[in-house]
């Protein structure tokens, strides 16, 4: 029996997970199998994650969005962490990364695995540093111990910072912001202290063996990603990318699935270059990008600066987007920041799919546009990416139920509503009626679009997530 999804795919077997993915993506199961077999897509599905509803990450499928959660030394308890998981899934996260660095990490992680319907990712280096007492005290044995334990617990994918090498460190000397990845800075500090090569690189084959046993997917960390526009596409970033390409191929030799993490800050005219270069260097392995942020001047609005880059990256071939919240660079996000970050990234992912003309992706847009033109306010709210927000904004100025039948909103009013004027002109015979009036409009039930490109957002919420209290929700963590 095959140990991993990629091994089964290479042997010609369509697994249950592949069947489920094909259903969710409206694709042929055999096409799913071929993509996984070739390493062009991954199905993060640890054999120990029983509550998982399988999903797929690959450039030929709908663009996915990850949300980061987790505790810190200052926050929080198990119930709060479950609340974070619930919030992320409710607002449309396709995967969740637990980047916790505080207390009770094992209990929290095991509870997430028990209840999460979406793949769970981690950065095992964080726990290893916490147990060691500092970066310099890390050992190869401890790293392997933590990685194996998390694999046994059911973690579906792990960020492994094995691509940053000792010979790369001098390449960062001319940067404005140095090494901005947590994992990258930890590995750099260790190498500087011990005068040895990256320990994760040294034990990479052993990690592959652990991953193969439990079907854990690599998320190869971009330790030297640029932290500002000035550092984008520099020699350090691309030197590590070349190493990540080599590590991708080594993992495939062990029948282990791989995706590759991408840069943080990149100017707009170089976003596509980054995606295309990763696809070439890493033989088409799925690209998982943080942003990228296309300007550095907007602290407090980096969910916007990054969503611009994320949409461009998605259209260029990035397979999954790691959300950024308004609190990026400033502090720990709260629930509303998570909501705003996921909304921005669901928009970016969907826009990328529409731009790539994914089958049926635009049907959602068409259906909402038809409801808007017909002044069907309730349908427009139901079709919105965030129905509660759309209804709230409308009702701030026109709250009565009678306004749900009105042929105007408060922006233009009755007299200057362009759509009302257009409708009246067509009904008066001055212009022909619209096509949508004659054919009944867009039928989303018959749309070939993948689940994530049809309403409602957060379809995983009916999974095995437990009920949580209505108390105050606490902060979410930053990136890896």
From TrEMBL:
Source organism superkingdom: Archaea
Residues the record lists as binding Zn(2+): 265, 329
Biased composition (Basic and acidic residues): 470-480
Cofactor binding description: Binds 1 [4Fe-4S] cluster per subunit. The cluster is coordinated with 3 cysteines and an exchangeable S-adenosyl-L-methionine.
Pathway: Cofactor biosynthesis; thiamine diphosphate biosynthesis
Keyword tRNA-binding assigned: no
Annotated region (Disordered), positions in chain: 427-480
Residues annotated to bind substrate: 68, 97, 126, 161, 181-183, 222-225, 261, 288
Cofactor(s) listed in the protein's UniProt record: [4Fe-4S] cluster
Keyword tRNA-binding: no
E.C. numbers: 4.1.99.17
Residues the entry annotates as binding [4Fe-4S] cluster: 409, 412, 417
Keywords assigned: 4Fe-4S, Iron, Iron-sulfur, Lyase, Metal-binding, S-adenosyl-L-methionine, Thiamine biosynthesis, Zinc
EC class of the enzyme, as a word: lyase
Reaction equations catalysed: 5-amino-1-(5-phospho-beta-D-ribosyl)imidazole + S-adenosyl-L-methionine = 4-amino-2-methyl-5-(phosphooxymethyl)pyrimidine + CO + 5'-deoxyadenosine + formate + L-methionine + 3 H(+)
A Pfam family reported for this protein in Swiss-Prot or TrEMBL: ThiC_Rad_SAM
Gene Ontology biological process terms from the UniProt entry: thiamine biosynthetic process; thiamine diphosphate biosynthetic process
GO molecular function: 4 iron, 4 sulfur cluster binding; phosphomethylpyrimidine synthase activity; zinc ion binding
Reported function: Catalyzes the synthesis of the hydroxymethylpyrimidine phosphate (HMP-P) moiety of thiamine from aminoimidazole ribotide (AIR) in a radical S-adenosyl-L-methionine (SAM)-dependent reaction.
Similarity-based family: Belongs to the ThiC family.
Protein name: Phosphomethylpyrimidine synthase
Underlying gene: thiC
């Amino acid at each position: 029996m095959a140990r991993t999804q990629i091994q089964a795919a290479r042997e010609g077997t369509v697994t249950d997970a592949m069947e489920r993915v094909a259903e969710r993506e409206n694709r042929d199961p055999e096409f799913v199998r071929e993509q996984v077999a070739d390493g062009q897509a991954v199905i993060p599905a640890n054999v120990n994650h029983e509550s998982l509803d399988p999903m797929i990450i690959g450039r030929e499928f709908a663009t996915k969005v990850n949300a980061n959660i987790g505790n810190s030394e200052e926050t929080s308890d198990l119930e709060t962490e479950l609340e974070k998981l619930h919030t992320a899934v409710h607002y449309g996260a396709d995967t969740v990364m637990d980047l916790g660095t505080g207390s009770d990490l094992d209990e929290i992680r095991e509870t997430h695995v028990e209840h999460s319907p979406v793949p769970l990712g981690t950065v095992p280096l964080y726990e290893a540093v916490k147990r060691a007492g500092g970066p310099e005290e890390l050992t190869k044995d401890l790293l392997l111990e933590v990685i194996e334990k998390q694999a046994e617990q059911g973690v579906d994918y792990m960020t492994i910072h094995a691509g940053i090498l000792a010979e790369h460190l001098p390449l960062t000397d001319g940067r404005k912001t140095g090494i901005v990845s947590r994992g990258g800075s930890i590995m750099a500090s260790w190498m500087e202290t011990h005068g040895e090569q990256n320990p994760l690189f040294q034990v990479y084959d052993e990690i592959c063996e652990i991953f193969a046993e439990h079907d854990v997917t690599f998320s190869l960390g971009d330790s030297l990603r640029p932290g500002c526009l000035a550092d984008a596409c520099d020699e350090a970033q691309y030197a590590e990318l070349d190493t990540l390409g080599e590590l991708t191929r080594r993992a495939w030799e062990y029948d282990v699935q791989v995706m590759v993490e991408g840069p943080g800050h990149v100017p707009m005219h170089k976003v596509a270059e980054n995606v295309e270069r990763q696809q070439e260097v890493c033989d088409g392995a799925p690209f998982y990008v943080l942003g990228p942020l296309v300007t550095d001047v907007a602290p407090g609005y980096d969910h916007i600066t990054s969503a611009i880059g994320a949409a461009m990256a998605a259209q260029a071939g990035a397979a999954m987007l790691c959300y950024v919240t308004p609190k990026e660079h400033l502090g720990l996000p709260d629930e509303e920041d998570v909501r705003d970050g996921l909304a921005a990234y669901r928009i970016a992912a969907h826009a990328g799919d529409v731009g790539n003309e994914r089958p049926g992706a635009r049907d959602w847009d068409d259906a909402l546009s038809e409801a808007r033109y017909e002044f069907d306010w309730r349908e427009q709210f139901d079709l919105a990416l965030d129905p509660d927000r759309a209804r709230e904004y409308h009702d701030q100025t026109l709250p009565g139920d009678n306004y749900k039948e009105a042929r105007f909103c408060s922006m233009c009013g009755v007299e200057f509503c362009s759509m009302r004027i257009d409708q009246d002109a067509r009904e008066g015979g001055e212009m022909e009626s619209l096509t949508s009036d004659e054919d009944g409009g867009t039928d989303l039930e018959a749309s070939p679009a993948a689940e994530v490109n049809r309403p409602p957002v957060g379809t995983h919420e009916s999974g095995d997530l437990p009920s949580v209290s209505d108390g105050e929700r606490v902060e979410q963590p930053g990136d890896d």
